[in-house]
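Minutes, project huddle
Topic: does the predicted pose make sense with zinc ion bound?
PN asked that the exact inputs be recorded in the minutes so nobody has to dig through chat later. Recorded below.
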Amino acid sequence: MKRLKKFLAIITILTIIGVSICGCAVSNKEEESFFYTTNPTEMISGEQQEVVEEKVTVPKYVFLFIGDGMGYPQLQTTCYSLGEDEKMPFMTFPFVGNMTTHNSESTITDSASAITAMLTGHKTSHGTLNMNEKGTKSYKTIAEYLRDELNYKIGVITTASLNHATPAGTYAHQNSRKNYYQIGKNLISSNFDFFAGGGFTDSKGKNGGNTSLYTLAKSKGYTIVKRTKQYEQLNSDTGKVIMLSENRVDEEYMPYDMDLDDDEWTLSDYVSKGIEMLDNENGFFMLVEGAKIDLCNHENDAATMIRETMALSDSVNKAIEFYNEHPDETLIIVTADHESGGLTVGYSLTKYETDLDVLLKQKISFSKFKTDYLERYKKGNITFEDILKDIKENYGFTPDEDETEQLKRAYIRSLQVGAMPSSELTKQEYINYGTYEPFSIVLSRIMNHRAGVDYTTYSHTGMPVPVYALGVGGEKFNGSYDNTDIFVKLCEIMELK
Ligand SMILES: [Zn+2]
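Predicted holo structure (tokens), as shared on screen:
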């Protein structure tokens, strides 16, 4: 789907919903919970909702959307960038919870222990996937229970690689999230029905000497599709499928949404295809991860974060459309594994002011600026005036005198030392640049400060995250609880032993 068209579609949906919400606020009678009926923009009152709830028992179709690193600040910054009273459609779901995310060794979790908590009900240590801290005991995941006990088809979609921590949380049992090759083998033996998004990190093992995971998957009956042209040929008769985005970056991730070419598939396109592939009489469970919301928060790139969060919201809209066709049988949950970056709306020098429009003018991600521009600068034959022109073209502003000085200093550091591991940085250097390219990180920081937002860390934080739910059993997700309760609640709703 074309990027601009999609962006406008979001704004349109939001505008209409904004009107509906205002309508609710006018009358006290209408201040009851509401939920979607025939389309995401049409809502009915809580009274009618109870009638629907009486008819249903176990949801046949379950969607779990995880915005990696998508805490309250990421959601609210995205909403504010669209307009003061705007909300993404899933944020108007009738059931809302607040969830703590600490793991067994720290108030600040990583993605592997967080997904383990949510999908198995057990706290574990950093980097551990569905096992205890010592790696001596395996925990069965909700996806595996649904596969084994209810014969549901299982789908896993991510913008990261398929063997990255969060998608691996559905099927892998490893003492380290970095055991990519072993995790890939766990994926293949999971027999899950549909995987889509990125490829395999370390597909031939750490040293490249093993049989390719793609070859192994094929030999176990998976159809592997790597070209956009072939996607449409897939249908529910194809059998088990692994669909990879045609262009993959870094460790086999999908590109950032704002960097996709017009004919490349977005996360929401994969969700649509997943629904088509998984729909069957027994039911399905689909985990969808907006993985790179986390990455751009690590990079303190708020503009890209907004676009990634909107891309996840777009993909939830596909599930909402499906819900509207099957309201008595569908459950949708949207949450995050943790907050990343310590983002906030507010920055010391801008005080009570914000100008989030600044962030919407950025055309390419921090990562793409680095690969397409900074790498070229490093080869020489470029003047700083030319660089300022590139900044104007891609970030939409001309730096003032003070910002130009900051950028020049960072540029020299990028040319001289570039990105460095934390072990080789002084405390102050780490605070200034993290382990990133100094020029890129300073450019993003200038953008953030112009917008009136700021980050406190290049890592995750220990803040709680919201949970939004719609559909059968959704009311269980109201209230305050811990991430391990997601598993408990899902087991109750699905009536698993
Ligand atoms: Zn992270």
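Observations noted during the meeting:
- The chain has a mean pLDDT of 90.
- The first strand starts at residue 35 and ends at 36.
No decisions taken; revisit at the next huddle.
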